[in-house]
Design brief:
about 0% strand, mainly alpha, elongated, single chain, about 80 residues, disordered C terminus
Length: about 80
């Protein structure tokens, strides 16, 4: 597989308003495709948040949308 090929497919559902926003951004930025626009928006969003690539072997339980009262992500093995 060449470096330009994508090996994974991600399917998402958007509202009409969300799709219109993506399409308007895509055309404003002259992106070649909807997929390219979405990849660029994801890259920009992750960069803006200071996203760090997970270390090899990191467990999915180490990541969560919700933090506990201490401001940390609860461990998947925690029972409460």
């Amino acid at each position: 597989m060449s470096d330009l090929e994508r090996g994974e497919r991600l399917q998402i559902m958007l509202s009409a308003e969300e799709l219109r926003a993506v399409e308007n951004w895509r055309f404003d930025k002259r992106m070649p495709s909807r997929a390219a626009a979405v990849r660029e928006l994801l890259r920009r969003g992750l960069s803006a948040e200071g996203f760090n690539v997970a270390a090899d072997g990191a467990r999915s339980g180490s990541f969560s949308v919700i933090e506990n009262d201490a401001g940390t992500v609860p461990n998947a093995s925690d029972k409460g």
